[in-house]
Amino acid sequence: MSQLTIERRHDDINLSADELWTGSPELREQQFAILRRERSVSWQTPMMTPTMKLMGLKPPPGYWAIVAHRDVSTVSRTTDVFASSVGGVMFEDLPPVMLDQAFLLSMDEPKHGKYRRTVSSVFTPKRLKTIQEQISNQARIVVDDIATCTGEIEFVSSVSERLPMWTISEMLGIPEEMREEIRYAANTIISWNDPDFLQGRDPITLMMTAIGTLQQRCFELIEARHRKPEDDLMSALIAAEVDGHRLDDNDIYNFFALLCAAGNDTTKQTTTHTVRALSQNPDQRDYLLADIDGRIDTAIEEFLRWASPVMNFRRTALREFEIGGVTIQPGEQAVMFYTSANRDESVFDAPNQFNITRKPNPHLAFGGGGPHYCLGAHVAKMQLKAVITELYRRLPDLTVVDEPEYLESNFINGIKRLHVRFTPERR
Ligand code: HEM
Fold first, then answer.
1. b/e string for 354-383 if b means 16 or more Cβ within 10 A?
2. 200 alpha carbon to ligand 1 midpoint, in Å?
3. What is the dihedral of CA 364, 369, 372, 377, to 10 degrees?
4. Fewer CB near the terminus (10 Å): N or C of the chain?
5. Which of 72, 314, 366 for a ligand 1 pocket mutation test, highest count of atoms within 8 Å of Cβ?
C-alpha cells in the first residue's frame, strides 16, 4: 500500500468533535443532514479520544465520512477495495488486545468466509427453534418481574439490559453461577469509554481485567464441554466442521467475546429507543396494539432504523476508489455512518418521522450489506419481537416520564437511563 502524501483541508463540520457524541442524537443528525445534502463524502479531522492519548496512539491525517445510504452500501459491499483486516474497524483506534476480540469483524475474504461458514453452521433450524423458545420464556420472566411493581421503573436496568446477555448465556450454555460475572465483564467491554461507568477508574486496566475474566471463564467452559458435550452452542462450536475447517479453542473464545460485545448493547439500545419512540407517538403505539401479531414484523424494521444502535464501522482502502465526487487513496480510512444512512431523505420519505408502517424499509442498522452483515440479525429480531410484544400486551399504557440520559459514545447510540410509568397488573 502506498504512503499517504495528499494534504487536504478538513471539513468545516467536524464529526470527531466530542459534543456530537455526548448529547442527543438530534444534534448529530442536523450535521449529517447538511453533509448528505452538500458533500456526501467529506474529509474529516481525525478522531483523538482521551484513551487514544493515554495509549500513545497517533491519529491518522484524517478519514473519509461516508454518510449517504448508497455510498455506505457501496463501501460495505466493495470488499476488494475496502478492507476490514487492516488498521481496525472501529471509528477510533483501539489497543491491539481489543482488535483481537473483533474476530470475524476484522477479517477479510477468503479467511472471513471460512470462519463465518463454520460458526454459522451451528445455527441449525432446530437450534434456532430452541433459541426462540428460550427468548420467549426470558421475555415473559423479564415482564413478570416488573408487571406487579409500583408502576414506575428505570427501564434500561429493569428491562432492556436483561434480555441480551441472558439469551447469549443460555444459548451458549453458560452455567448460572458464572452469568453475573460474565455479564459485568461484557458490559465493561462496551462501556469502557463512558466516564459515568469509569468513575475515575483507568479504562485500560478495567478493559484488561474484563478481557481476563471473559477468557478465564470461557476457557473453563470449553474444557468442560470437551470433556462432556452438552446440547448447547458451545459444544456445537467445538464439534463444528465445514469443508475440513474447525475452530480451535482460541477461535471459540474470540467468537464468544464478539457475541458478548455485538449481541449485548445493540438489542438493549434498540429496545429502549423503541419504548421511547412508541411513548412519544401514541398513535403509532395504538395502531400496533390493534393487531400486534399482524403488525410487529413490519414495525421491527422501523424500530431498527430509528434506533440505529451501531452508529458506524470503519474500513481501510486497499486501492484508489472514486465515490461521492472524491477519490479515496490507498491506506485511507472510510467511516460508514449507518445512523446517517438511515435518515437519508433520498431513500426514506420523511426520515425523521417514526413510522411503523414504513414498507419497504431498507435500513442499514445491521450494516450496509456484504459479507459482514450482522450474523445475529435473526436472533436480534426474535428478541425485539418477544420483548415488545410481551410488554405492550400486558402493560399497554407504558409511558416514558422523563428525558433520557444518553451514553457518551461515538459508536453506540445509547440511552443509559429512562424512567417509565404504567398501570401495574393486579397481583
Ligand atoms: C439490534 C441488534 C443488532 C444490531 C443493530 C447489529 C448490528 C451489527 C452491525 C452493524 C454489524 C456489522 C455489519 C458490517 O460490518 O457490515 C454487525 C455484525 C455482527 N453482529 Fe450484530 N447487531 C445486532 C445484534 C446482534 C446479535 C443479537 C448478535 C449475536 C447474538 C450479533 C452478532 C454479530 C456478529 C457475530 C457480527 C460480525 C459479523 C461478521 O463480521 O461477519 N449481532 N452487527
1. bbbebeebebbbbbbebbbeebbeebbbbb
2. 30
3. 50
4. C
5. 366
